[in-house]
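User: Can you help me understand a structure? I only have the sequence.
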Amino acid sequence: MSGFSLFVMVFKPKKRGGLVPAKNEEKIGLADKEKLKFFELNEAYLNVWVLCDGVKTDDEVCGEFADYLLSNAPKSKKKIDKNKLVIEAKEIIKKLLKFNLLE
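Assistant: Let's start by predicting it. Here is the structure, written out as tokens:
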């Protein structure tokens, strides 16, 4: 038996502290009450941000987001590929991290 071990990094995205969901006129997003800033987000970005609780892994967040979209999609829509939705959610997480909205 070899001494080889596999280390797998598990990423659990978490909302950055000090931010709360908010509405500014007709726009939705996040408000930073301390810095008096508003970050405009579309509905998909806001929904992914809300799911990032620091408990679920990024894969769990993305799967939950995709399942939510699939369960709420109009029946008349073409078949939606869950894998594409998961990939899009991963990209959303990357962008939220880039703009320091997640930890």
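Now, to help you interpret it: The mean pLDDT is 90. The helical segments are 43-51, 58-72, 82-98. Let me know which part you'd like to focus on.
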